[in-house]
Amino acid sequence: MSERLPLYKALAGTLEQRIYNGDWPVGSILPAEADLCKEFRSSRHTLRHALQILENNGLIYRRQGAPTQVVSRQRSRRFTQSYNSPNDILSYSRNTYRFNLVEEYVELDKDLSQIVGAPVGSSWYHIGGIRKRQQSEEVIACTDIYILPQFASLTSDPEHAQVMVYEQIEQKYGARIGRAEVDVYAAPAPADIAQKLNLQTHAPCLVIIRRYFDDQDKLFEVTVTHHAEDKYIYKMEFKASSEV
Predict the structure, then answer these.
(1) pLDDT recorded at residue 33
(2) Residues 189, 193, 194, 195: what is their CA dihedral angle, to the nearest 10 degrees?
């Protein structure tokens, strides 16, 4: 025997079909909840659950104290992108390595505080360097990494140049990534960055900032990377979700 849909899902399907058929055109107002309950012989609880589904699917717009408005005849398409690990988030191929130019303890000034996302005066360990392709030695990026001071010794690890810093922190200190933020924007290259990337000052760059938080939501690493306009390509694939 086929499994019956829960009442609220069945009602949501009926309401969706009525909207699609034009019984309630886009821009119109749905009947009051009491009228809908009477028409479909439904409890108010079941109706509200069904309306929530319609709202999640982008068919109606609800606001407390205002009538419910129809905003679309068809549900909005949802797309998903899966990440198996942080390595999938705007990462580099394994045929590159990082060459450190600067390793130092710093206190954040106002400008760095805004970039890192930490308070002015807070202490961090700064690793500044460039990323190169292994065979050609071509410079593809300029990177500034800010980590908590207690992780500073990881730069002495033999595999430091090859391994992403957050991976070293996980392996050596047991910190685990709870979430990550990624900012991507275009900006002109400052003079010092342009020199490292063999560019003219103010040449266009792609800037990617990654912020890593542990499972207690504490920020422990921030990576700021500048790429020349033709040195980095990131491809993404999205799949349509089948979820209601």
Answers:
(1) 94
(2) 170
Looking at residue 169, what is its pLDDT?
93
> Is the Cα torsion angle 121, 124, 128, 131 positive or negative in sign?
negative
Separation CA 109–CA 122 (nearest Å): 9
What is residue 239's predicted lDDT score, i.e. its pLDDT?
Answer: 66
User: Is 0.85 surpassed by the pTM of this model?
Assistant: no
Q: Are 170 and 213 in contact (CB under 8 A)?
A: no
Q: Which helix (DSSP H) or strand (DSSP E) does residue 157 occupy?
A: none
pLDDT value of residue 88 = 52
Q: Which two tokens stand for residue 69?
A: 């408005």
CA 124 to centroid of chain Cα atoms: 24
> Which residues, in sequence order, are CB contacts of 105 under 8 Å at separation 6+?
123, 124, 125, 126, 149, 152
- Beta carbons of 68 and 51 less than 8 angstroms apart: yes
**φ/ψ (deg, to 5) at 7:** -55, -40
What is the predicted pLDDT for the residue at 87? 55
Secondary structure of residue 184 in the 3-state scheme: strand
pLDDT of residue 244: 47
CB 207 within 8 A of CB 185: yes
With a cut of 50, list the residues of the chain below it in pLDDT: 1-2, 244
Indicate the length of the chain as a whole number: 244
Contact 204, 99 (CB under 8 A): no
- A 10 A CB-CB count for 161 gives 15
